[in-house]
Amino acid sequence: MRLKAGSVGLSVSIRALEMSKKNRIDLYGKTILITGAGSGIGAASARALYAKGANVVLLDLTDLGTKPLEKEFGAARSLALIADVTKREQLDGAVKTSIQKFGGIDIVFANAGIACDPPTTVRCMSDQTFEHIIEVDLFGVTRTVQAC
Known about the structure:
The structure is a single chain. The chain has about 150 residues and is α/β, with parallel strands linked by helices. The protein contains 5 helices and 6 strands. The protein has helices spanning about 10-25, 40-50, 65-75, 90-100, 125-145; strands spanning about 1-5, 30-35, 55-60, 80, 105-110, 115. About 35% of the residues are buried. This is SDR family NAD(P)-dependent oxidoreductase. Belongs to the short-chain dehydrogenases/reductases (SDR) family.
């Protein structure tokens, strides 16, 4: 059983962008930290938020997806960092570096998430797999927000 990244947060991301349009939230100059920013919903959200004038901090397990985004956006308003949401010290370091560059973090998009691929039930997955999903999808959100 494989774990697939990027399957959590779709409704949150879409709602946030819809609210931005509806309520005309001004994101210009705001700094937004995005976990799971290297692909899928995280990368798409980073592009949309950057287009609205936000500075974006792009966090993911590797820089394979975030470095190209940083290059696309330019270093003035983006920062790609490696951080695992299951490791508090990595999140603390990423937040510290982000604050040094942008002066603070205004918005946190705790988007990192994993799921089984192919989908399965809790009954059929191992304890280790289930615990890893909870570690990323639940505790990862808590750690990310607390670090900021």
